[in-house]
Amino acid sequence: MKIHIHIDEHCEETSVTIQAKEWTEELAALVAKLQASTPRRLLGVEDERSILLDPAELDYVCAEQRKVFAVTKQRRIELKMKLYEIEELLAGGAFMRFSKSVIGNLDHINRFELAFNGNLCVHFHSGNKEYVSRSYVAELKQRLIMGGGKDGA
To answer: What positions belong to coiled-coil segments (predicted)?
Structure first.
């Protein structure tokens, strides 16, 4: 793949042109990545106070007992959104579904351990850990091979 960038001070809006022989999954992922807008903040609640959270600082988001929590290295903050709404907001970035109740940050993964039931235990740099269901393991491997959340789709 060749990349050409042309800087023009008279250009009023950034535009991207893709030339290809045929439409591929790689092109679809590239277009989705270009069109995705990463949310700047999520709104959490802790001790009856509203807290702005930077998604890049989160290890994962999980649903437990009909509540949704954002988990960082030292904190666990309740979010007043549904898990699927957060998944839609974070789509196309560093986050992906790990299980029915967890969305994880690929950029914070440190290592894996294979569990006896076929699930993966993901260890984050912070020391937190969470499990990836068997049905999401193949997608996780593919996303990590393609560069995770930083550069991959």
So the answer is: none
